[in-house]
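Hi R.,

As promised on Friday, here is the backbone we talked about, encoded as structure tokens. Could you run it through your design pipeline when you get a chance and send me back a sequence?
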């Protein structure tokens, strides 16, 4: 291996990527680039050997930075901090003593086993002897712990190869496929619970995202915009950076209010959002739109309403939450850290302009006609011209 002095080693496990045949290198390359970018300016080195990824990070890099990076990098199933030492038994024992002082062993509780693999058969002890001796070391240090070889809560791994490697039960990564391997999408990001989760889901399949928010100031507050910026910033960790576009939608909203029937307001607004989103996507090289719609969740998300909004978009619209129920969406939102921000009580434009009795089963042809009659295309072009742009860092 290269110059790895003063570097800390982490072992990374891949899931779906390792099932890729000839394409595997492409996915691995993107994942490596994503990790390196997030860890920068700290020096890191990534090597691949026998189905494993070895990440060496300059020792001055805080452990927290590495953990936060690996926990938010799609493609990683799990990772463990590892200790590398010389290939003699005394060094292995010393390394084991130091590693069990750290998480997950350090609380001294629960069940464990030692799992040794000896690729180098010339090593002075065989696997069984290593396991038995180090099991004793753990029990001496933590007498409350118990050995369970079938279903242990914690595992101390020892591998004797070119050097000796010791590591413990892996911390979970987010799985999925590396961001940047599946093209680019434009996420319609509102301040609600659903759209950030939709973005997360698509990023987890490798789609790189830009975000678009429709702001209707002063009908929607500055705090509503701040909330969306905060959500974009959280998503930036998963997406390896993020650009948020903000469209001033006030004039369009007022136009819709004056030029369409009340029960059609929401549908017309959604149609306008699709038109604007298509223009932005085209400019930014986004191949698809992504929304947080779920079938039947509100009036504008019935099958008929979705068919109509769909017909207003030239680009395909991906709706990763379409078959999920609200509780599942909330659970994911908590997991990814957007929930607390999403539930802040600042309404977005849809709520403020929504009619008392919206059309629930619109007819696409009729609504397409209503949209044309509004004659709003020119105003929508202006919205796109005056777009604002914000950048959020990939730093974790
Ligand atoms: P969310 O929880 O994501 O706000 P929602 O349940 O409130 O969704 P709608 O208001 O009907 O549902 O919005 C459906 C989708 O349309 C959202 O998930 C989002 O993708 C998009 N959207 C709605 N409002 C906005 C907005 N102001 N800016 C950008 N996209 C929006
Ligand atoms: Mg909403």
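Update: got your reply. Pasting your designed sequence below so it's all in one thread:
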């Amino acid at each position: 291996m290269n110059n790895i002095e003063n570097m800390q080693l982490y072992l990374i496990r891949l899931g779906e990527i390792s099932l890729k045949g000839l394409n595997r290198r492409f996915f691995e390359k993107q994942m490596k680039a994503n990790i390196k970018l997030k860890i920068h300016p700290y020096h890191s080195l990534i090597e691949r050997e026998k189905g494993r990824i070895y990440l060496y990070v300059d020792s001055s890099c805080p452990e927290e930075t590495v953990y936060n990076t690996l926990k938010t990098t799609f493609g990683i199933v799990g990772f463990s901090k590892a200790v590398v030492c010389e290939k003699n038994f005394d060094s292995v024992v010393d390394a084991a003593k130091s590693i069990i002082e750290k998480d997950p062993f350090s609380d001294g509780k629960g069940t464990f086993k030692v799992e040794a693999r000896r690729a180098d058969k010339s090593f002075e002890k065989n696997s069984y002897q290593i396991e038995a001796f180090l099991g004793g070391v753990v029990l001496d240090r933590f007498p409350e712990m118990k050995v369970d070889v079938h279903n242990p809560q914690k595992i101390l791994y020892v591998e004797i190869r070119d050097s000796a490697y010791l590591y413990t039960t892996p911390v979970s990564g987010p799985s999925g496929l590396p961001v940047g391997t599946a093209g680019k999408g434009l996420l319609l990001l509102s301040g609600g619970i659903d759209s950030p989760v939709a973005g997360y889901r698509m990023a987890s399949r490798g789609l790189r995202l830009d975000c678009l928010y429709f702001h209707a100031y002063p009908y929607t507050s500055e705090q509503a915009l701040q909330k969306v910026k905060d959500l974009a910033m959280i998503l930036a960790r998963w997406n390896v950076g993020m650009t948020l576009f903000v469209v001033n939608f006030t004039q369009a909203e007022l136009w819709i209010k004056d030029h369409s029937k009340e029960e059609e307001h929401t549908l017309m607004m959604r149609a306008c959002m699709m038109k604007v989103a298509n223009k932005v996507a085209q400019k930014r090289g986004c191949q698809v739109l992504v929304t947080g719609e779920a079938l039947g969740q509100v009036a504008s998300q019935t099958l008929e309403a979705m068919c109509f909004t769909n017909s207003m978009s030239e680009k395909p619209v991906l709706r990763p939450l379409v078959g999920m129920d609200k509780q599942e969406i909330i659970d994911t939102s908590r997991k990814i850290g957007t929930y607390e921000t999403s539930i802040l009580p600042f309404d977005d434009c849809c709520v403020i302009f929504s009619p008392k009795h919206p059309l629930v089963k619109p007819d696409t042809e009729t609504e397409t006609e209503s949209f044309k009659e509004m004659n709003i295309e020119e105003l929508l072009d202006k919205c796109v011209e005056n777009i604002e742009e914000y950048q959020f860092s990939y730093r974790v």
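One thing I noticed while checking it: The first strand starts at residue 7 and ends at 14.

Thanks again,
M.
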